[in-house]
Structure of Phosphoribosyltransferase family protein:
Amino acid sequence: MRFNYWQDFLSLVFPETCCICKRSLFPFEDQLCKICISRLPLTDYHLLPENNDLKTKVLGLAPVDKVMAYLRFSKSGMSQKILHQIKYKNKPALARLLGQMYGTLLKENGYQETWDLIVPVPLHQKKYRLRGYNQSEELAKGLASALEITPANLLLRMVPTQSQTNKSRMERWENVSDVFSVVDPGMVINKKIVIVDDVMTTGATLAACAQTLQAFHPQSIDLAVLAAGK
Ligand SMILES: [Zn+2]
């Protein structure tokens, strides 16, 4: 009981705030307020996963079937704020929550048995140590719990990738095409895999992950990201 009083006192003095709008959260809210949740820029890629502009982006680079994103990315929009929080503001729980929300949506749309394995895009060990967590892994954990599948850290990032920002499409592809390896190749054979990342811009990183896994004969490879833009 004493613990609860203390918690109540703390939340009066330091109320938890919404990760997007910074308004104080009610006790029944977690990470995001109900208003921000209702305004999330949701997409409907999951309704047409094999024929959309995201798939067109990666099709020339890797053999993927379904490609989808939970949120529409726009600079200075809500998804940008969320990405910033999960990447740079020490918010692994927010990444897990969003993964869970996406997983719930996908489950409601018939995706419960679509995948055997959920594989996050890995961070290089150095970056992982600096950040303390991998936001894509946290997203994958949330997705996996909603869809009742075990997440599998099957990929390893061998070399730290340089910043992609000032590179052309071809340069970006060359920058990532040899950086991943598979931890346990035996687990890939004949599996239906979805690779998970926080954001998809050119799709080069995700395509490189897909290619790396493809070498070990999975049944299919799909891509699901938190946010993507045109
Ligand atoms: Zn809010």
